Structure formats: C-alpha cells, structure tokens
Design the sequence.
C-alpha cells in the first residue's frame, strides 16, 4: 500500500506537480532506454504514471499504453490533459485489476522509493508478474543512502535495498543495471531493465 503522507502530498498538490513535470525538458535518456529495450508495438503499462506525460509519449511512439497510479489527484490531471488515453487507479504492491502476463512492456519510473521499503520486494515481484513471458520491465528509483527521508512536501524517499530488488529479478535476464545522475532532477537514480523468461 502506498505511503499515506506521500499520497496525500500528491493528491493535495496534483496540479502543481503536474505543471512542474510537464514544463521540464523531455527525459531523452529514458526515451532512449525504452526505444532500445521495449517491444515496439507491445502493450505497455506505466506503473505510477503521475499526470500521464510518459503514457502520452509511449502512445505517440508506437507503444500502446495504459497508465496506473495510486493518486486520484494525479489521475484527474492525467485524464484532463489526455482524455483520449487510458488511466486507472491501482497501487503497489497489489496492482489490483491487472492480470498476470498482460503487458509486453512495464515501465516504473522513480516510484518504488515512495513505498515503505518492506513493500519494495513484493512490488518488484508483482510488476514482473504482469509482464508476459519474454516481456520487459524497466524500473528506476531515486537513491537514498542511509535512513529514509521525507522532502518538504512530506513525500517519502525510502532507502531502497538494491540487493533485494535484484533478488526479485533473478528469474529474469538483466539487460541494464546502472546508477547515474538524472538529467531532469539532478539526483542519483538507479535503473534496471529485465527481460522475463520466455
């Protein structure tokens, strides 16, 4: 279940967060990874889609996409901006309403660090489960070393244990494992791409 304080922060200031995200430069580095690893034309889930920017990009670039988020406020922003696209409420780790093996590509960009760290392994396991055999999962999170922290808005940034994430992905083939400074946020981000066994 999503961290309540984080969810409240997103719900209460959804319009402001959406405006901020949509005025940032396009995340070319993320788009390059998608183009390299995702199945073109494949059904794609954006888990933690926020206000829908990446769902719109995916849809426009040959990856039929559906967005999922735990925040009703952010989903309202997404639906207002992109009324022709599909957005649904679903939260990690359960991802209720999403069937196993239903997506060719699964995208989860800087979301899992907003969860209680004890929920991260189950969340990774579930995201791999909704990918079809041979499907691809892209997963990233902002790196916090030491103790969990909260930002001024109250959003949780959990100290994610990389080893526990990799353990959940061990049945899959790891295609990318990198840690770098994000161009958009200036923060350290860990990125993984895994291909589910066929």
Sequence:
């Amino acid at each position: 279940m999503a961290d309540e304080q984080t969810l409240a922060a997103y719900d209460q200031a959804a319009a402001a967060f959406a405006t901020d995200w949509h005025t940032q430069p396009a995340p070319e580095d993320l788009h390059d990874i998608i183009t390299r690893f995702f199945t073109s034309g494949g059904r794609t889930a954006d888990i933690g889609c926020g206000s829908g920017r990446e769902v719109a990009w995916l849809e426009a670039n040959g990856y039929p996409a559906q967005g999922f988020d735990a925040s009703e406020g952010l989903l309202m922003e997404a639906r207002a901006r992109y009324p022709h696209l599909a957005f649904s409420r679903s939260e990690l780790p359960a991802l209720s309403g999403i069937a196993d093996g239903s997506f060719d590509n699964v995208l989860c960009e800087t979301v899992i660090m907003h969860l209680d760290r004890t929920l991260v392994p189950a969340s990774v396991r579930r995201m791999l489960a909704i990918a079809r055999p041979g499907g691809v999962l892209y997963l990233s999170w902002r790196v916090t070393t030491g103790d969990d922290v909260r930002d001024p808005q109250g959003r949780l940034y959990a100290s994610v244990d990389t080893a526990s994430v990799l353990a959940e992905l061990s049945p899959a083939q790891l295609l990318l494992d990198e840690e770098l400074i994000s161009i958009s946020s200036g923060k350290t981000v860990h990125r993984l791409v895994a291909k589910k066994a066929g």
